[in-house]
Design goal:
This protein is α/β, with parallel strands linked by helices. It has ten helices and 13 strands. The protein has helices at about 5-15, 20-25, 30-45, 60-90, 100-105, 105-115, 130-140, 200-205, 220-230, 275-285; strands at about 50, 55, 90-95, 120-125, 145, 155-170, 180, 190, 210-215, 235, 250-255, 260-265, 290. The strands form three sheets. Strands 3, 4, 5, 6, 7, 10, 11, 12 and 13 form a nine-stranded mixed β-sheet that branches. Helix 1 crosses helix 2 (about 20-25).
C-alpha cells in the first residue's frame, strides 16, 4: 500500500472526485477517503479540500504534486524494467520459417539460444515467402525468414547467401562443370511452381529459357526424388540439399544465381522482450553466412 496510496491520491486529484475515483479504482468511496486521510496524517499536511462539487488541492497539496507524481512514475518504470527482465526468461517466440531454414539453420539457433534461456518456448509456422510477409504484417509471428528483397517496412538482417544449383539424375552426362541454359533447353524440367516468382524466374526469363515442364511438385524433396528417378532436371537452393541422401548430379549455374535469406520483423518496439533477445542473438551469432 505504500506506493498505492500515492496512486490513489493522484487518480482522485486527476478526476476531481472521490466518487469517480472509487468507481474506476474499484474501492468504496469511504475507503478512498480513508486512504487519503491516512496519507495526510502521515505527511502531517492537509492535501485536499472536500466539497459538494468534488475535491481540489490545498496550497500545500499543489506544492507536493510534482514529488508525488515522480514517486508514481519511478515506480511504474521500475515495474516495467522488472517485467522486461522477467520476459527475457519466459514467454513464447513465434517464428515463421521456410523448409530449408527449418532443417538446416533454425534448429541450431534455437538449441544454442535455449541453452542460455531454457524457459523460453518457440512456436514455429512453416510457409512460403508470401505467407511470411503476411504473418509479419498481421503480427501473427514475431519474426520470419524471408528472401531479400522483401517488404520495405520490415527490419531485416541477412542470415545466409546461397547458390542455386542445377540437379540431374546421377547418370546424366553433361559436358562441362556448369549448367548453361542454352545447353539443355529440351531437358525435361521438374518444377516447384513458386520458384518462378523469385530470382530464378527472373534469370530464366532473361536467358529466354522456357523449361519443358514434365512434372510439378510443391515439395522440394518430391522434386529431388523425381529427378533421382531420371524423370527430369530442376534448379534448387544449395542449402536445401545439404544432408540429403538423394543420388543427384549437382552443377553450378552459368551465370551463377544466389538467394539471400534474412530474418525480418516489423517493429522492434512491439516485440516481447524474449523476441527482442532472440533477434539480437541471431544477429550476433548467425548473420552473413555464405554457403559455398
Amino acid at each position: 500500500m505504500s506506493i498505492k496510496k500515492y496512486e490513489i491520491f493522484l487518480k482522485t486529484v486527476d478526476l476531481g472526485s472521490l466518487t469517480k475515483a472509487s468507481q474506476i479504482l474499484g474501492y468504496t468511496q469511504s475507503a478512498i477517503s480513508h486512504i487519503i486521510a491516512g496519507l495526510e496524517d502521515e505527511l502531517g499536511i492537509k492535501l485536499l479540500i472536500r466539497g459538494r462539487t468534488g475535491v481540489r488541492l490545498t496550497e500545500e497539496g499543489h506544492h507536493l504534486m510534482a514529488a508525488i507524481r515522480t514517486i508514481c512514475q519511478d515506480n511504474q518504470e521500475l515495474l516495467r524494467q522488472a517485467s522486461e527482465l522477467h520476459g527475457l526468461e519466459t514467454g513464447t517466440i513465434r517464428i515463421g520459417t521456410i523448409l530449408s531454414v527449418s532443417i538446416h539453420l533454425l534448429p541450431k539457433m534455437i538449441r544454442t539460444f535455449s541453452e542460455q534461456h531454457p524457459n523460453i518456448d518457440f512456436e514455429l509456422l512453416q510457409g512460403n515467402y508470401d505467407d511470411m510477409e503476411q504473418w509479419i504484417s498481421e503480427g501473427r509471428i514475431d519474426c520470419g525468414f524471408l528472401r531479400l528483397p522483401t517488404n520495405e517496412a520490415f527490419d531485416t538482417t541477412l542470415i545466409v547467401r546461397e547458390k542455386f544449383l542445377a540437379i540431374f539424375p546421377v547418370d546424366r552426362e553433361i559436358e562441362g562443370d556448369r549448367f548453361r541454359f542454352d545447353d539443355v533447353k529440351a531437358e525435361p524440367y521438374i518444377l516447384r511452381p513458386d520458384t518462378l516468382d523469385g530470382d530464378l524466374g527472373k534469370v530464366l526469363k532473361k536467358a529466354a529459357y522456357r523449361p519443358k515442364i514434365t512434372y510439378s511438385a510443391k515439395d522440394d524433396y518430391a522434386v529431388m526424388a523425381l529427378v533421382e528417378q531420371g524423370l527430369g532436371m530442376s534448379i534448387l537452393p544449395e542449402l536445401l540439399m545439404k544432408g540429403t541422401t538423394y543420388q543427384l548430379k549437382k552443377m553450378e549455374l552459368d551465370p551463377p544465381l544466389f538467394r539471400e535469406i534474412c530474418l525480418a520483423y516489423k517493429n522492434a518496439q512491439t516485440l516481447s522482450p524474449a523476441a527482442k533477445q532472440f533477434i539480437s542473438y541471431v544477429k550476433n551469432n548467425f548473420a552473413n553466412q555464405v554457403e559455398t
